[in-house]
Amino acid sequence: MRQSEAYAQYMKCIGWEVEKIPGTRCQIFVRRLGVLGAVAKLQRTRLPLPWTVIDKILRKNRVILMRVEPLNCNFSAEEFEKAGYKSEREPLRATKTIRINLNKNPQELLFSFKRARSWINKLVKNKHKVEIGNFDKFFEVWKKATRIQNIWSSSKKDFDNLWGSFGENAFSITIDDICGCLILMHDKVAYYYYGAALPAAKGQNLPYLTIWEAMREARKRGAKVWDWEGVYDPRFPNPKWKGFTQFKNTFGGEEVWFPGSFGKMTLRNLFPTT
Q: What topology is assigned to 5-93+260-270 in CATH?
């Protein structure tokens, strides 16, 4: 998804420049820092990469710090070492996720879930107000939930730019105006991008129904895979991730690991030569 045209459009909206690597489908995102040059990142990319071409792009944009995050773990660290990159302690993106096969009929999909199945079966028996595509309502719920939890949330402008960049490949689900999620789709994969639940929703276990409704809608839109966009990874431990990872694990699925982030600092790019 982070190499898609839609995501590149979103990055442009929030102040990043996009440099495409010739001969590949890869995109480097560049953020200018004025007289201090620029920083850049290349995320979820396939290997091998044309390092010489990348270096030219970095020099042209006066990039002093570059971060690269490969898509899979099947690579040689020697490739990065030769290009001047070192493994970073802190990754930019989640280094582990869980994916669920949506290419099943609803009954088979529900049966494949672990503990989540029992909660969903109970919740679908009751009447709930389910809205699809009410982005303003989801943002309102998300904003309230993040304030309660004292965690980050984007501005309304950036949020609108995000789903607007994906157009028909973005949708929101809200339930009873107290629970919801934002889903972004790319290449038949549905990514769980944002989720929110107010205390009243958690008390009723509504997040389970929210995910079920989102998966059903994603299937209708042609998605074959559900991606949780990150779970707890013991290699890069963050205790705050354990809670929502427990919730995600109740749906089962296949674990997918990413190798983390590799960085390169090149101060001489502040004074590039021709």
A: Aminopeptidase (3.40.630)
